[in-house]
Amino acid sequence: MHPLLSKASEFAAGLDHPECVAVHPDGSVWAGGEAGQIYRISSDGKVVDEVANTGGFILGIAFSPGAKWLAICDLGKKCIWHLDLNTLKLERFAEGAAGHLFNIPNYAVFDKKGNLYVSESGEFRSVNGKILKFSPEGSGEIWHAGPFNFANGMAMGLEEKHLFVAVSFLPGVERIAMQADGSAGERSLVCTLPETVPDGLALDAMGNLYVSCYSPNKIFKVTPKQEVTVLIEDWEGHTLSNPTNIAFGGVAMDQIYAANLGRWNITKIDAGIIGLALPSHD
Q1: Which tens digits make up the pLDDT trace of 196-211?
Q2: The domain that contains 109 carries what CATH number?
Q3: Number of structural domains, the chain?
Q4: Full residue range of the structural domain in which residue 39 is found
Q5: What sign has the CA pseudo-torsion 163, 41, 134, 137?
Q6: Phi, psi (5° rounding) for residue 159?
Q7: pTM here?
Q8: Which of 2, 10, 61, 151 could disulfide-link to 129, CB 3.0 to 4.6 Å?
């Protein structure tokens, strides 16, 4: 058994194959389900409420700066939803941008200005993924045309100098430089992860990148020097089962929450690693 696996446990159960997870500033943990459910989980994991339902299939979610609303990627409805966190009113935010309609809107990331970046995975076995960008008002554009071999999870780097992208069928991670004018800059390779399907990304306060994999049941750590190690793995698939998206949370922001697409729960890992504060927590 991997040493860190002893510090991983079931945080909340009874979810419908959650692919995504995000942590609200109030400590609650949010997730989605494969039948369109949006779940809010109490900070102790004991209460799971379904607060909304899109009728689709929920992929990535992200809180806006100040946590005023939740951006929801919906595979089934092929759109991004806007969930107002005060009223819990659900509205369509975008179905695409700049003449491009979403096929697989997979993951959402905000910058500090409130711009929303969404990975468009494209199509399975076709290298046509891209990154779309939306202003706070909702106007959209193709920010980076790729093509990516299935663009998936993303993470904004330290000081918003880079946007990291999990590329599932590369398989590995790429990064895109953020230009001063907000446009996409140089695209470069961070690492390859042979015989894996990388899915989710998260950064710690030191700039280390964590990569959760749909397969196998592993989370990798990638240092700023691009050194790759295994943070945690579960070959049995009981504690981690297709861990797709991950997020830092907890009182000290030193716990990692993992969504398990292969099961019905969220896993909490007492990692002892301080996560990078997201715009939603500023």
Answers
A1: 999 999 999 999 999 9
A2: 2.120.10.30
A3: 1
A4: 3-281
A5: negative
A6: 55, 20
A7: 0.97
A8: 151
